Amino acid sequence: MRISSAMIHDHGSGSIVDAQSRLYKLQEQLSTGRRVNSPQDDPIAAAAAMRVTDTIARNDQFLINQAAAKNTLAFAEGVVGDIGGVLQSIRERLIQAGNLGTLTANDRETLAQDLRAEYDQLLSLANARDSAGNFLFSGSKETTQSFNDAPGGAVVYNGDQSRRTVQVSASRALAVSENGAELFQRVRTGNGTFLTGAASTNAGTGVIDLGTVVDSSALTNDTYRVVFNVVGTTTTYDIVDVTTATTLSAGNAYTSGAAIQVAGMQVAIEGAPANGDTFSLQPSPNQSLFVSIESIAAALQGTPNEPDEMARLTTLMGTALGNIDQGIEKALVVRAQFGSALHELDVMGESSESQQVALRTELSGLVDIDYAKAISDFARTQQALEAARNSYARVMEKSLFDLI
Amino acid sequence: MGSSLFEVGLSGLRAAQISITTTGHNIANVDTPGFTRQVSQQSAEVSQFSGAGFIGKGVRTDSVKRVYDEFLVAQLRDAGTREAGSAVLSQQLGRLSGLLGDETTGVNPVLTNFFAAVNDVAQHPNDLTARNALLSSANTFAVRLQDIDGEIQRLRGDTNMAIDRVVTEINTISKQVAEINDQIALQANSGQTPNDLLDLRDRLIGDLAKNVRVTTTSMPDGTVNVFLGSGQALVVNNQSYKLAAVNDPQFASDRALTLQTQSGTVYVTPSQVGGGELVGHFAFRDGALTDAQNELGRVAQAFAFSVNQQHRLGTDRNGSFGADLFGVGAPQAYSDGRNTGTGAVSATIVDATQLTGSDYDVSWDGTNYTVRRTSDGTTQTFGSLPQTLDGVQISIAGAANAGDSFRVLPTRFAAQNFSVAIGDPNRVAANTPVRSSASLANLGNGTISAPSVVGPTANPNLQQPVTITFTSATTFNVSGTGTGNPTGVAYTAGGTVTYNGWTLKIDGSPRAGDTFTVGANTGGTGDNGNAQALASLQTSQIVRGETLAGAYGSLVADVGNEAAAAQITHLAHEQMRSNAFDAHQELSGVNLDEEAANLLRYQAAYQAAAKFTSIVQSLFDEFLQRLG
Fold this sequence. Notes:
The structure holds two protein chains of two kinds. Chain A is α+β, with helices and mostly antiparallel strands. Chain A has helices at residues 5-32, 43-97, 105-126, 180-185, 289-302, 307-367, 371-397, and strands at 147-148, 156-157, 165-169, 172-175, 194-198, 207-208, 212-213, 224-231, 234-241, 246-253, 259-262, 265-270, 278-283. In chain A, the strands form four sheets. Chain A has a five-stranded antiparallel β-sheet. In chain A, strands 6, 7, 11 and 12 form a four-stranded antiparallel β-sheet that branches. In chain A, helix 1 (5-32) packs antiparallel against helix 7, helix 2 (43-97) runs antiparallel to helix 3 and helix 3 (105-126) runs antiparallel to helix 5. The two termini of chain A are 25 Å apart. A five-stranded antiparallel β-sheet of chain B has the order 13-20-15-16-17, with no helix packed on it. In chain B, strands 22-30-25-26-27 form a five-stranded antiparallel β-sheet, with no helix packed on it. A four-stranded antiparallel β-sheet of chain B has the order 5-6-7-8. The longest helix of chain B is centred in the first third of the chain and has 59 residues, at 128-186. Chain B has helices spanning 2-28, 70-100, 108-123, 128-186, 195-211, 270-273, 276-311, 529-535, 548-588, 592-627, and strands at 38-44, 48-50, 53-55, 59-66, 214-218, 224-228, 233-236, 239-240, 243-248, 251-261, 264-268, 326-327, 332-335, 344-349, 360-364, 369-373, 379-382, 387-389, 392-397, 405-409, 419-420, 434-438, 447-448, 452-453, 466-470, 475-479, 489-490, 495-499, 502-507, 515-520.
């Protein structure tokens, strides 16, 4: 093969430039720590890196959301816990009152005052604000004060029935709040299913308890009444469906404290009802906790010390205790919801974190350099460059012209 | 007899001198590009007949020839065409790939930031700081889109300028080739080849071949005719034909090519030009560059379309329905500069999630409109316009004449004119416009979920108060404007209830008489329903089956792939050119050592001839002295 002088020069300088360009590339990789510095370097890895980075960014967002949700939930859980505490203390007051017969009018006055103090505390908790100054229990109307006080416990709820949610994963929007209507107003009365009561005209000393459900399938929407007939020493009662105006049974023999069953409900009436005394059973409506507290406080204050009034007050106390128990139950349920949401967040957080670690490892594998390999490549290329330089210099060093 | 002795000596001296000069010429031109080494060709002078037979009369130099192979030169030229074309493509694709960024730069990081800000608003819908941050990250996103588009646009401008430059160079060279042809033809009668002129012409044609693919035809008079790849003449004899870069009749901001011919000026397509730098520039501009700009625009369109659509379904802090959050460049349509009718085509986006990122050519043949998708060449024929395809509605106003054509660019300018349309943070629509509630008087334990709004546009009766009253445990009546007040609707626990553009679920066991209401979410500024819906667009497949980040990622990957492929192609072409260069050099290149050896050889010949002449001289001297 014939070689021209231009070929010698071109090949010699070409291989030097080649080695230099490889060296430059390796140096860039070493100094940035990245194997892929432009999508052109490795389009497939670059595309995968973009997908992984996007997923990491989204997971980061979810982690931020999770942290925010946790803070909100922890705060709300604390407040709901306080609400439960206030309700518990009201419950204790009511139980403390115990046998009403032993209480003086003054004792009852004091009790009423205590209940009103608890009422105020509950109202202030109901108007709690979060760290951003927004009302916790106003639903989505978070800038509006949740509750306004009004006489007779007719507290007005200004919020709506929404719950705030936080997107904590691609497929999960977690509720992180409860609205005031749900917590304070949507509270069943009585035993939570039906409500018992004594007519205000009752002259006897009959006291009805909260009752229990014995057959939930027999429950109806109707209101029932137990009507007493006292003839001489014989006390009997009739059971009337008020809604349909039908007498279900008549002349039942009455024993104090014996169970009376009607439409799946069972109650016990104690004491000595007078002729014409009536007791009612109806499906529990919702009642604001504030109404429940205020009404028992008012009853404690306003009831004269007479046996029939005391009997009615005893029934009312029982009902109030039931109402408060329902409130405590509600607070517990809401707290449990928050608690399970927090737990869910903990579990989710752990898996998100470990997912992030895996994704970051994957990303690093895609675009970062293997230092050991890059350094040995660098050394080898440097050697190649040295060889190219030396050999070129040698080839160009001598010529026939030197000898003539 | 005496004079012939001198003649013989002198012929040797002359021949050696020519050889030495030729060698010197070779040595002098060792670094001249395109130089072909020359050798002198000698033959013995015709001998003279005498009684003693034929007596030699010395040597003569017939000619100085180039050591030349036309095939090798053509091969080198073709390799040069390929190499130059792929060099342009590789270099420009590398620039494009660089400016589109990777996972840490480009559009995706700012897109992530935008959705982070949306999420933040979802956390704190009433927080003006979060709302401001959303608008500022929206601005950052808009600026990034504009910046990248600006860079692409700059590359487009550079490419069009490069086309102008290359065309000028081609014209200069073809003019020079024609001039050299003229000079060569003048010397055609001498019977000798003007070696250095031929070298110069070969070199010029080689330079020309870097710009465009050329073929040549040698004529008997020594001239060479040069043709473009497809056969149009660039140089015929001493006449060169001008190539020109003119405004593209289909899209005036780009350059197109025309060629002067004997029958007038005609448009030539890049494929007719065939190869070289010129085609490299066209291939880059009309391929990856246009695709990238359209694709970026497509992401912008889909983003603006989906975000705006969702934003309009929510209510802002003032309780008003959201306005468009982003403005985006509208589709553009151009009439071909050669149209004879008055028809003007226009285009609007109907559904940005269906866009393809392609341009469309619309042509009218007098009976039908043919719409051609330029990305894959598929065509559809319509008897009339407007028509909608790939999410774009194409309309025409005025009357087109048969043969008229139009170009529609649905997404090209979307990123360039991408903007944030809202400045007041209060106007970010984070709230769901409707809320639901269950009456506190309900005896059953039925629950109602928060309503969500059904798109794509808000129902005019969306916020009308609606009451759902259960008439039994399994049926309910609905009353409210827009619902049609249906009665006795069957209830399924957990089933969806949809009226007036909202949908929600009622669950549990309601009792007869229970009521649920849905109405305007007045004052519900803490609601984050719409902010969450906006945030969920990050993971929604709103760009023809891809997410926003996915679509941009595909763009980056596509360009990266093309750039990597072009780089490999360029390396291969470089190698091919290097091989062709070697083959050519192997034959025609100057080797200095070889020339040095030749020099020694011709020196010896010269010295011998000189000595011969001097001996002849002394012979004569002796003869004359003897005479004297």
